[in-house]
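Sync notes, pocket subgroup
Present: LS, DG
LS reminded everyone that the earlier model was apo-only. Rerun requested with uridine-diphosphate-N-acetylglucosamine included. Inputs:
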Amino acid sequence: MKTIHLICAARPNFMKIAPLYHALKKEKWCNPKIVHTGQHYDYQMSQAFFNDFGLPPAHYYLNVGSGTHAEQTAQTMIAYEKVCLEASKPDLVVVVGDVNATLACSIAAKKIHLPVAHLEAGLRSFDRTMPEEINRVVTDSISDYFWTPSEDADENLKKEGIHSDHIHLVGNIMIDTYCMMKDKIGASGAYKSFGFQKKACIVLTLHRPANVDVKETLENVIHKIGEIDLSIIFPVHPRTRKNLEHIQPLPQNLILCEPLGYIDFMNLVSNSAYVISDSGGIQEETTYLGIPCFTLRDTTERPITVTIGSNQLVSVENLLDKIKYPKAGSIPPLWDGKTSERIVRSIKEILQ
Ligand code: UD1
């Protein structure tokens, strides 16, 4: 029986491990174990997702919590190394995305000679002021197996010297999650409970340090968005909350709420006119749904959402012009809900 660790830490990770956990659980030859580092710990940032996705409690919970990047990364390395040495030695470590745990657990594992596979490998914003870009580059420089969502990611990895034998274009795991949850998302009354008509509201999310950590920058963004002539539902990330509290008055069309679970959030997105966000994953989900997305960033590590999909990069200055021209786009190859099946086949080849 092969032991596979699925590492998760923060909100965007839970939707990436969920379909893979369920797919691996059906196999007789392996035993998937969830390792939650505890980077996100608020109920609405963590447990709500375990509930939505029908995941069991994490097999190993590292309780790392908040801290500076170095603190969080170091604590995660120490705690995860202990799990591997003292509690459960995995045959394969699967890290996902680009959060601090992705970096920390891949380093801890490689230093004790454990094989590491990176799910969502090869994405690059080419902006090294983003903590996630450092996490992506370092993780990919030491991983053994690379599961990518799109061809641009394959090309980035090859340019960095990764042999193509180790790169598997598997598609986008987040689309598996959406397909798995589609019926529940459709049945959720979230947009109605906010009193919205279909396609008559905007969903806003903001949490990138570059947009929210400086009060004046956040204030500028919020006031610009406030000029839009539609209701805007804004589930507020804990990182954003701190500076938002000092911005008074807030625009009248802005409806603040706590972070939402996956099902309610996706119900709102699916029924929105468009989305304004600085998230990574939302660029992909909106592309799949054909919902226009305006991403408040200079760069994206997911260029396919712009070239093929419904995503556009915008700035505070040009936002009001750009939203006049939403685009529908189409769905990139292999974003078909079968990515976890392809990963299971890849793991079988690796381990058998
Ligand atoms: C992290 C990821 C980012 C991802 C995002 C999704 C890194 C470097 N960043 O950023 O890639 O897009 O998650 O949400 O890994 N906090 C709470 N409760 C929680 C979690 C956090 O109050 O449950 C607070 C923390 O104390 C901290 C702030 O929110 O002050 C930011 O949390 P942190 O986990 O450091 O990074 P995120 O900005 O969430």
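DG: The mean pLDDT is 97.
LS: The first strand starts at residue 2 and ends at 8.
Action: DG to write up.
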